[in-house]
Amino acid sequence: MTRPTLQDHLEGWSQADALRRDVADAVLALAGAGLKISELLAAGPLAGPLATVRGYHADGDSQKELDLIADDLVRESLAGTPVALYGSEEADAAVLLDAAGTLAVAVDPLDGSSNIDSNATVGTIFSILPYAGADSLLQPGRAQLAAGFLLYGPQTALVLTVGVGTQIYILDRASGAFLLAEERALVLPETAEYAINASNLRHWDIAIRCYVEDCLAGVDGPREKDFNTRWVASMVADVFRILVRGGVYLYPGDARRGYGQGRLRLVYEANPVAFLMEQAQGSATDGRLPILDLIPLSLHQRVPLVFGSRAEVERIARYHRDAAAMPERSPLFARRGLLRA
Ligand SMILES: O=P(O)(O)OC[C@H]1O[C@](O)(COP(=O)(O)O)[C@@H](O)[C@@H]1O
Ligand SMILES: [Mg+2]
Ligand SMILES: [Mg+2]
């Protein structure tokens, strides 16, 4: 079976449309950077001290050696493409690459960087917007022209949307090309799997506690079915799993200092993932509004994030909107509660 390459697929989509061709150029450049990052990760310690902490963001998050190398590789790959503005999770401000360019690109060069030295899956997330001046990266997620991520696992994958479904490509190492593996990824609407860092349980608000409590109660609780937990601590790996077999991912705001709006960044992480989810018939919310409708106020703004199978995302949003929707409030379930504060 001959599979289309990423390049074939993008050429078929862009045809003679100038802006689409620019998007295709940017995506191919990002794929090229991804190939280099995947080679570094495959070599691990043989490629140097990739997990060594080299600095800190203003909000206290550490920057590892590979965070910085990946940022350089991505920025270099975009030079010479039609990208005007490059914003990176690793830099305070966006940089102008080419004032004549048509695109603005926001990148999380390495997502899941706490996993670098554990030989677990990490990735590179990107969001492509039309360039409209210095504040281009503050457009709402609905304005995205394309979004996706590279995943560095047993397979190196590229998950992409240009607004026509969500595609999955796998790197063919022999040719160096990304080959189409799934033309229309679809997130199952229902699931019995959820992903959350449960060590933060005591800091969650009542809606999140109630949701997780319902799942943990399994067949004996109000959901009347058993759930399974999955948490990779690499959002990209959780996104990929949800695309192939459903599930829901939660990184809510919590009561820890600096975590009122959760951990994930709207521009670099939540918007591209929300676009991929919606294009795969999943959904993404901050607990109240669809992520793609939010208007970013600053480049590094964090946002509570819940995405995945539609029925679960909708349930969690309902718990936030309407306390009465939480089964925990029912006197019957209250007697069985596992996690009561
Ligand atoms: O360590 P925690 O709090 O469980 O957070 C893990 C989450 O943080 C992230 O690693 C954030 O991304 P970065 O590695 O780019 O900072 C997500 O990929 C992951 O789901
Ligand atoms: Mg990240
Ligand atoms: Mg990162």
TrEMBL record:
The keyword Oxidoreductase does not apply. It comes from the Bacteria. Mg(2+) 1 binds at E89, D108, L110. It catalyses: beta-D-fructose 1,6-bisphosphate + H2O = beta-D-fructose 6-phosphate + phosphate. GO terms for cellular component: cytosol. Keywords: Carbohydrate metabolism, Cytoplasm, Hydrolase, Magnesium, Metal-binding. Its cofactor is Mg(2+). Residues 58-182 form the Fructose-1-6-bisphosphatase class I N-terminal domain. Mg(2+) 2 binds at D108, D111, E269. Residues 190-320 form the Fructose-1-6-bisphosphatase class 1 C-terminal domain. Binds 2 magnesium ions per subunit. It holds the Pfam family FBPase. Its EC number is 3.1.3.11. PROSITE patterns: FBPASE. The keyword Cytoplasm applies. One of its GO terms (molecular function) is magnesium ion binding. GO terms for biological process: fructose 1,6-bisphosphate metabolic process; fructose 6-phosphate metabolic process; fructose metabolic process; gluconeogenesis; sucrose biosynthetic process. InterPro entries: FBPase_C_dom, FBPase_class-1, FBPase_N, FBPtase, Fructose_bisphosphatase_AS. Pathway: Carbohydrate biosynthesis; Calvin cycle. Substrate binds at D111, G112, S113, S114, N197, Y249, L250, Y251. Homotetramer. Belongs to the FBPase class 1 family. This is Fructose-1,6-bisphosphatase class 1. It comes from Ancylobacter aquaticus.
